[in-house]
């Protein structure tokens, strides 16, 4: 090997080491972004209460937290202030709205999971969808979140949703009070 | 001729204001989130009065259940109520396909012609980002549930510029805080709550 070849080989080896270090660093950062640790309800609520004020233009600093026993909330792949991010949120809100029209446990769980989302707009849409879904199966989850909530506004909204879901529905009322008019049973017999 | 000109000039002036009043909304799915208060127990003597009120939940699924009973229809899971900009209410499936007409029993009135407008509209590009305010009325006329609720609708409305392939997206999200009265099983009921309208459509830009 000539001295000039030796120099080229040394430079190439150096470049390879630098590239390896850079790759390792990048890999580590990706890991930290994609990791969604299992979180307790209280840490989810802390995230929920403070996420609105803790965003950077490059994306959410605070990550969504899975509520134990529910699927992990979906996260936007886009930066926090980008138009794509806003579109992603609008699309997600629309999906939640649509899910609330179904009656299966899977749809309810998918909606409930988004109460742990880092985006306040998605959490609000999820709560509206829980109300619209109309199942009392949601009440224990809402109660847990309400107990853990540190944001008074979110706590109030959760408590109102609990109260709303615990009310008798108009069809239940009509079934209990068949003497006031035409009951559902009488109607269906006609 | 002069007389005609006098008649025509105000009409032309009126046309100049049309962009404000011709705001085109978008057909939307409707979510109802209301409470209804009905007298429960009540007794009165010359010395005492006693009463309780029952509060019941009235939501979209309840309306669909009662509508299904009335029309002898079984709507699929995921069915929704859809409100056209002319106020016509239909039942659609989760994909938005027509399932049934709710028209005789559930009607909406959107006073879009007298809406007020805040935001930006560009006639050349067709782009619009606005907040619109108008009166909204929902009328339910089922045998066991009747109601007439009203409120001021606040709509976030957006028409995007054409995308690369010329598709323009129109979207609207409306919240109406409503109240009103009606009958539940023949008894007077007072309503309050919210109605949410959400719509999105795609069109090819000219």
Notes on the protein architecture:
The complex is a heterodimer of chains A (190) and B (206). Chain A is mainly α and 190 residues long. Helix content of chain A is 63%, strand content 4%. Chain A is built from nine helices and four strands; from the N terminus they run αβαβββααααααα. In chain A, strands 1-4 form a two-stranded parallel ribbon. A two-stranded antiparallel sheet of chain A has the order 2-3. The model of chain A is unreliable at 18-61 and 181-190 (pLDDT under 50). Chain B contains three helices and eleven strands; from the N terminus they run H-H-E-E-H-E-E-E-E-E-E-E-E-E. Chain B has helices at residues 2-16, 18-21, 60-71; strands spanning 28-44, 49-59, 80-83, 89-92, 98-101, 106-110, 116-121, 128-141, 145-159, 167-184, 187-204.
Key words describing this protein structure:
heterodimer, A: 190 residues, mainly alpha, 9 helices, 63% helix, disordered C terminus, B: 206 residues, alpha+beta, eleven-stranded antiparallel β-sheet, 3 helices, 11 strands, 15% helix
């Amino acid at each position: 090997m000539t001295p000039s070849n030796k120099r080229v080989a040394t430079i190439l080896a150096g470049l390879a080491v630098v590239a390896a270090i850079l790759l390792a660093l990048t890999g580590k950062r990706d890991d930290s972004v994609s990791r969604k640790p299992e979180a307790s309800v209280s840490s989810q609520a802390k995230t929920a209460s403070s996420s609105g004020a803790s965003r950077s233009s490059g994306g959410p600093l605070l990550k969504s937290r899975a509520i134990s026993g529910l699927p992990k909330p979906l996260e936007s792949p886009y930066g926090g202030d980008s138009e794509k991010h806003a579109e992603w949120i609008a699309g997600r809100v629309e999906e939640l709205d649509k899910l609330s029209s179904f009656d299966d446990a899977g749809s309810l769980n998918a909606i409930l999971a988004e109460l742990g989302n880092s985006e306040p707009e998605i959490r609000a849409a999820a709560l509206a969808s829980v109300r619209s879904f109309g199942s009392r199966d949601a009440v224990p989850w809402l109660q847990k979140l309400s107990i853990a909530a540190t944001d008074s506004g979110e706590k109030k909204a959760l408590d109102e949703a609990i109260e709303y879901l615990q009310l008798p529905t108009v069809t239940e009322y009509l079934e209990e009070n068949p003497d006031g008019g035409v009951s559902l049973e009488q109607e269906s017999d006609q | 001729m002069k007389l005609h000109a006098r008649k025509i000039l105000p009409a032309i002036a009126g046309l100049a204001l049309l962009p404000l009043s011709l705001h085109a909304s978008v057909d939307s799915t409707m979510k109802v989130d209301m409470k209804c208060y009905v007298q429960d127990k009540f007794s009165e003597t010359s010395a005492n009065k006693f009463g309780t009120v029952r509060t019941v939940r009235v939501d979209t699924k309840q309306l669909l259940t009662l509508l299904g009973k009335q029309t002898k229809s079984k709507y699929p899971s995921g069915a929704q109520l859809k409100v056209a900009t002319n106020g016509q209410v239909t039942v659609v499936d989760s994909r938005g396909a027509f399932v049934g007409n709710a028209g005789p029993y559930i009607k909406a009135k959107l006073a879009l012609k007298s809406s007020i407008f805040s935001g930006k509209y560009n006639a050349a590009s067709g782009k619009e980002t606005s907040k619109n305010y108008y009166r909204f009325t929902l009328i339910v006329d089922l045998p066991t549930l009747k109601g007439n609720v009203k409120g001021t609708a606040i709509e976030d409305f957006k028409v995007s510029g054409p995308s690369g392939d010329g598709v323009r997206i129109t979207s609207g999200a409306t919240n109406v805080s409503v109240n009103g009265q009606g009958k539940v099983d023949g008894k007077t009921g007072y309503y309050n709550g919210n109605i949410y309208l959400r719509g999105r459509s795609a069109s090819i830009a000219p």
